Amino acid sequence: MLDVKNIFKTFNAGTVNEKTALNGVSLHMDEGDFVTVIGGNGAGKSTLLNAVAGVWPIDEGTIIIGGTDVTHLSEHKRARYIGRVFQDPMMGTAATMQIEENLALALRRGKAHTLRKGITKAEREQYKELLKILDLGLEDRLTSKVGLLSGGQRQALTLLMATLQKPRLLLLDEHTAALDPKTAAKVLDATERIVNRDHLTTLMITHNMKDAIAHGNRLIMMYEGRIVIDVSGEEKKNLTVPQLLELFGRASGSDEADDTLLLS
Predict the structure, then answer these.
(1) Pairing of the two strands 218-223 and 226-232
(2) What is the pLDDT of residues 130-170, one digit of tens each?
(3) What average pLDDT does the structure give for the chain?
(4) Which of 235, 216, 89 is nearest to 157 (CA)?
(5) What's phi and psi for 92, nearest 5 deg?
(6) Angle, to 10 degrees, between the axis of helix 121-132 and the axis of helix 99-107?
(7) Residue among 219, 232, 163, 230 at smallest CA distance from 191
């Protein structure tokens, strides 16, 4: 479902601020893979997601989604293949619109429909059922303005909207980082349920090593623009945080784990 082949990205090339963010990254994901991505600040995690999403062009390499070469497609043209949830809960929803109107927009995305026709009773019942999976009580607040919701509720709604049309690839860019621990756990649980229910191919960045181990069927760790650890199956399931740090030390050649990893 995703093939990233030997991609490179350098920012501010030829200047004193030159930074190689991706250094020959290759990643193959089968349909239904749920891959968690971890690494310190500047490791290349968000750059990898942005490269896949088409936020900026890569310098070298190839990106294929679902058999389609999207390397030279613009961000808005790639959007038909991708669902995305950002770190900021304020992104991804329209604050002045109702919950049901936001869901209607997401469900009708790319179709020749507008909200002028209104939302039918059948659609309302569909939205209620969809919202129940979030376990946040939003199914009883369909006409509430999204701007009145908490950050966690908005992020959960954004997640639901991003997956309504079952994208070929779901990108989660630290989508629980701005939430309190209890709400973050709820959003992660909802993420796991939605991904498993719809068999979505998912790439999730996190700074939290426990979350990276607990969720998904595969874990990769990045360091200095490269993938230095790639574990899956039973090996991933049985990992502990100390073991992950030890793996990181061996793979990166660093005596000390990155501070941001430890702080997480």
Answers:
(1) antiparallel
(2) 899 888 889 999 999 999 999 889 999 999 999 988 999 99
(3) 89
(4) 89
(5) 95, -10
(6) 100
(7) 163
Measure the CA–CA gap between 249 and 254, rounded to whole angstroms: 5
Phi, psi of 262 (to 5 degrees): -65, -40
Handedness of CA 241, 51, 31, 228 (dihedral sign): negative
Q: Do the Cβ atoms of 79 and 35 come closer than 8 Å?
A: no
3-state secondary structure of 124: helix
Question: Over the Cα atoms of the chain, what is R_g?
Answer: 19
Q: Is 39 left (phi over 0), alpha (psi -120 to 50) or beta?
A: left
**Tokens 């908005």, located at residue:** 154
* Chain segment 38-72, per-residue pLDDT in tens: 998 889 999 999 999 999 999 999 999 999 999 99
Q: Is-contact 103 163, C-beta < 8 A?
A: no
Give every CB contact of residue 224 below 8 A, 6+ residues apart in sequence.
20, 23, 42, 43, 44, 252
pTM, to two decimals? 0.90
Phi and psi based region of residue 227 (left: phi greater than 0; alpha: psi -120 to 50; beta: remaining):
beta
Give me the residue spans of the domains in the chain.
2-81+167-263
CATH 3.40.50.300 is the classification of domain 2-81+167-263: yes
Residue type, 48: L
Residues composing the chain: 264
